[in-house]
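[step 3/7] fold_predict: job queued, chain A
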Amino acid sequence: EKRVEGLPKTRRLFYENPYMREFQAKVIAVLNGEYLVLDQTAFYPEGGGQPPDTGWLTVDGRKIRVIHVEDVDNVLLHKVEAGAPLPEVGSLVQGEIDWERRTSLMRHHTATHILLGAARRVLGDHAWQAGAQKGVERSRLDISHWRRLGREEVEEMERLANRVVMEGRRVSTFWMPRNEAEERYGFRLYQGGAVPGKEIRVVEIEGWDVEACGGTHCRSTSEVGLIKILRTERVQDGVERLIFSAGPAALEEVQRRERALAEIAEAVGAPVEEAVEAVHRTLETLEGLRREVTALRRLSSRQRAEELLRGAVEVQGVKVIIRSEKADVDYLIELCLLYTSPSPRDL
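[step 4/7] structure written:
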């Protein structure tokens, strides 16, 4: 149990400056021998579909790995690696964020808002966020829609999203009284779900999307880089899921798919740009060969059945055939069916 009664709220440096990589803080509590409470932190806690930051705390020259951060009644708990030597209460620590991880999460979180705006413009205003989970390599966005997404719709959403990225639109984050925010932006603010408090944090992508959101974001859409929708899934009736990647992770995914396409092209002996047509031709040839094999197997099994029936032994009025046949299953099934026919020539 994580008891935080009497502890002051943690100052959240990641809201004051989401690009802060290092900071100094004082340890104000050690809980259960694995959680550190600091007076201030740049480590973002798990919440709003965004995973927590990880990184390191350095005290007296010793580095302690931070593996998880969570929010308990506005007190942020930093879970450290098991067995790490813990600093004493009152010690000063130097915090360092795993910046590659954080920037990837910022890109994916901002990309989620960009894609949601694109979904509304392609599908209509009924498209509402039904859930989201951000990740380092890929993320997902669930949207309300009455039917499966078509390829053209997905491509149009991807095209619009990347246009917004290239335009370098400003991403603003600010706090507003709830009633003022609702009056200005309407209840579409709560795309990501209900937000507690009299003041809410608003994330606005200039001229594109606005939501109440507690996550960390890029300052400009241009920092997101490439957005690539990897696939779609039907989560339940009326909810479609977009699986996507942003930034370097999206580029890696595109390159992975290009490598796969190049291997397919090489296997069918065609240039990459002609690989699709070559695969279709190969499949048509394969289907033709499959039909030929089926016909030949049927002819062979019919001839073999006639041969075996000629050598059958009658026992008490029943023809008995005992043979050992080495062949594939389909051939043997065909053969057995012919055995049971009173006249295999009629088959």
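[step 5/7] annotate
The two ends are 76 Å apart (CA to CA).
The longest helix spans residues 275-310.
exit 0
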